[in-house]
Write a structure and sequence with these properties.
The structure is a homodimer.
Chain A lengths: L2 H7 L13 H11 L11 E6 L2 H10 L5 H4 L2 E8 H34 L3 E2 L7 H8 L5 E10 L17 E3 L3
Antiparallel strand pairs in A: 1-2, 2-4, 3-4
Chain lengths: ~170, ~170
Amino acid sequence: METLECIRSRRSIRKFKADEIDDETLLSLLESAIQAPSAGNTQEWHFFIIREQASKQKLAEAAMGQGFLVEAPVVIVVAADLEEIGRAYGERGRTLYAIQDTAAAIQNLLLAAWDRGLGACWVGAFSEKAVSDLLALPSNLRRVALIPCGRPAGMPRKPEREGLEGRVHWEHW
Amino acid sequence: METLECIRSRRSIRKFKADEIDDETLLSLLESAIQAPSAGNTQEWHFFIIREQASKQKLAEAAMGQGFLVEAPVVIVVAADLEEIGRAYGERGRTLYAIQDTAAAIQNLLLAAWDRGLGACWVGAFSEKAVSDLLALPSNLRRVALIPCGRPAGMPRKPEREGLEGRVHWEHW
């Protein structure tokens, strides 16, 4: 798919067909994710592939009951290594760059999935502690997003964008 | 350009030709930026188009002397409205979603620019106070990135990616 068409047409998918996504496809999506830029090329991202039903159930509970996390054939949990980015960039690295770098990688992932006919949804509302407990994460890994992913069951309307009016400014406020 | 090729081939550009970028082109890049998802579709992003030489000079100073900010024909300053996102999502909105939503928009912007033969660079190291003073920003707008943009003068090597080894985990740590 053409880049601009992919960016324009992509939407968040919360209903999935039962079809599995094979490892090769998943890894190709993650190869696109890690093409994102990162501060000083630190690449402090980590990705957890979750397919086990019991684990997806716990992720849904951690995400205040968002049940589509269970229906997705796979959920990718994205985390940032705060120790790694903090070594080079201190507090700004831990609180800004870590979040930006992983977010850029996630956006690449969403676009690459869409390009392949897959759907996904960026879930940010969840208990970081519950996800950390589930994945047995070391304390330096901050959980920044849950990305359920699968073949879309239906095509929802894209939430309307306000447009650029009032959001673009020339030279100053 | 095909989406995956755009994601794969894009790199950070820090040397620019003098060619101007017209308003129409810039606005089309920002139209791609705002196709990004945002928490609850809040769309709390703001974009400042900076072309004036004296302003670019001040941005470079705010960014610890990164001189390529002056050479770029345009610098886009990206900000997030913390009050807007905070109303719906409180502290998590201000410290996580605001940064993720603008980062996703920036990644779209970088890809859309690359697709059109333009180059850009995500600059995160700068004094937020100095940029705020320059743009006369209200205190609710956090400055999250400077994006110099222009026609690339030469094609630098892409910093190598470590690959997925040690970054992808199956079911748990």
